[in-house]
Design a protein that fits this description.
Blueprint lengths: L15 H11 L2 H14 L3 E3 L3 H4 L12 H4 L8 H4 L7 H14 L10 H10 L5 H12 L11 H11 L6 H11 L12 H9 L6 H12 L1 H5 L3 H8 L3 H12 L12 H7 L5 E6 L2 E6 L7 E3 L1 H12 L6 H41 L1 H6 L10 H8 L3 H8 L3 E4 L2 E4 L7 E3 L5 E3 H13 L9 H10 L6 H10 L5 H4 L3
Helix pairs in contact: 1-18, 7-8, 8-10, 11-12, 12-15, 17-18, 18-20, 20-21, 23-24
Length: 486
């Protein structure tokens, strides 16, 4: 039985404009540039450059049949070359014209040779049967960027049978893989770290140290990884000096032989472009937004004129004219919404960075990590007047350039820790002290987490051993046993 009933409930919904702003907030400067370019291509009502109409004092509803004599010519309608020689043009104007011309020039983009291309080039110099060449090219195509072949040979054989119709055995692929592993750079085509190191050691000049190193990697790799040096010396019947020589051979190897062939595009993506620039001069801080590559946006004058024309004749609107009017209005609304979202993003980013500068002023003036004060997202949100989620999005993937280097925005956020005197300090200060002690430790007898906790307690920082272990892991430092050296 069907029944009708009324129900009242509260729902929180985000408007399309809010969703667009949220997405723009998360983007760093480089990705914002790409997003703007995409929007310019997709929406013809959005144009790049300054909006000349905004500078004009003329009313919005100008008569369309007015001629140039009635309107009057503006300075923008005239070219400097029409009435001035180059000698009469001010220097600043010439500089603007040169910069504008340079921006229009195409910038060549150089892409270096990739690892895949380098290996295929070497294969081309080898006299191989066609079937082996095809297998070798397929193996090279399955290699990862670091030079490792992590796919199982049986899976590669299945792929070749399915895609090329060539039936190959795992044994044949194993033979061809050994040929590929003979290419440059040494260690290429390895299936794990142990094999990678062995491939490189086999190419070294034979010596007692090299022989011991090969023996260690081939037969005692787990003990070597765990730094059980006593077990290795006992098993190989060698003294400490010979073990040191063998370990020197191993540590000189490249664990990721393919990393030297990262292409120019990948390198460009890995480069950090700061979103903010904070300069300290005589105790004063200056904040600048890095907007040099972000163009000014405005609504298309042609589309605005079309909307006026359609609006004037709305009494005689037929279906086709109504559809055209809806299309123009939709594009204009979308363009205006995007412009507003970009402006609001800039305002939000600037306001957030200003608050961070106030809270972390000592660091921006000195560059000393010990001066960083405890700061969480809530501290910035309360002072900026934004929600915590907004501050989280702003701080994600953003960087600030200071007099002392470039830092991610998340670098300035840290929890607090209480000292014996009751003073609250940043956990970064504790991590810095830990790092200094670990760098200065005796590598033959590294500091344990319990010893680090005792050192910190002696300095007035009340911290448990488990917390020390957590901070050590955050610093990317392994446990004492794995830091041991001979």
């Amino acid at each position: 039985m069907l029944r009708q009933q009324l129900q009242q409930r509260l729902q929180q919904k985000l408007s399309p404009q809010q969703i667009q702003l949220i997405r723009l907030l998360e983007l760093p400067t480089i990705e914002l540039e790409e997003r703007i370019k995409h929007e310019l291509e997709e929406n013809p009502a959005l144009e790049e450059g300054k909006d000349e109409e905004d500078k004009s004092d003329q009313p919005e509803d100008l008569s369309l049949d007015e001629g140039p004599e009635e309107k009057g010519e503006t300075e923008a309608d005239l070219s400097l070359g029409d009435y001035l020689s180059e000698d009469d043009i001010p220097e600043y104007k010439l500089r603007e014209m040169r910069e504008r011309a340079e921006q229009k020039e195409d910038i060549p983009f150089s892409v270096g040779q990739s690892l895949n291309e380098y290996l295929l080039e070497q294969l081309g110099l080898r006299d191989l049967p066609e079937e082996e060449r095809q297998m070798a090219e397929y193996i090279v195509g399955n290699m990862e960027d670091d030079g490792y072949l992590r796919r199982d040979l049986a899976a590669i054989a299945d792929d070749m049978a399915f895609q090329t119709g060539t039936e190959v055995t795992v044994e044949a692929l194993e033979h061809v893989l050994s040929l590929v592993q003979g290419l440059e750079p040494p260690g290429i085509g390895a299936r794990n770290l142990q094999e990678c190191l062995l491939l490189q050691l086999k190419r070294h000049t034979p010596s007692p140290a090299n022989a011991n190193a090969r023996n260690i990697v081939e037969n005692y790799f787990d003990d070597f990884s765990r730094k059980h040096f006593d077990k290795i010396m006992l098993a190989l019947d060698i003294d400490e000096e010979k073990l040191k020589a063998a370990i020197s051979e191993i540590t000189a190897l490249d664990p990721k032989p393919g990393n030297g062939w990262e292409g120019s595009i990948l390198t460009a993506h890995n480069q950090v472009t700061p979103d903010f620039l904070v300069e300290a001069d005589n105790g004063e801080l200056t904040l600048t937004m890095n907007n040099r590559s972000i163009p000014e946006l405005h609504l298309s004058q042609d589309y605005r004129d079309m909307l006026r024309d359609y609006a004037k004749g709305k009494d005689q609107v037929d279906n086709s004219r109504r559809e055209a009017l809806q299309f123009v209005k939709q594009k204009l609304d979308s363009a205006q919404g995007f412009i507003d979202a970009v402006k609001q993003r800039q305002q939000t980013l600037q306001r957030t960075m200003e608050i961070i500068m106030v809270l972390q002023r000592p660091f921006f003036l000195s560059g000393d990590e010990a001066t960083l004060r405890p700061m969480i997202l809530k501290d910035v949100a309360e002072r900026a007047g934004y929600d915590i989620s907004t501050i989280s999005r702003v701080s994600n993937s953003k960087y600030v350039q200071t007099n002392f280097g470039i830092y991610p925005l998340k670098f300035f956020f840290s929890e607090s820790l209480q000292t014996e005197s009751g003073e609250e300090v940043s956990t970064r200060e504790v991590k810095k002290i830990m790092k200094e002690n670990l760098d200065a430790e005796d590598k033959r007898k590294p500091l344990t987490d319990a010893e680090l906790a005792a050192i910190l307690k002696a300095k007035g920082y009340l911290i448990a051993r488990r917390t020390v272990a957590k901070y050590r892991e955050q610093l990317g430092i392994s446990v004492a046993r794995l830091r041991k050296e001979i």
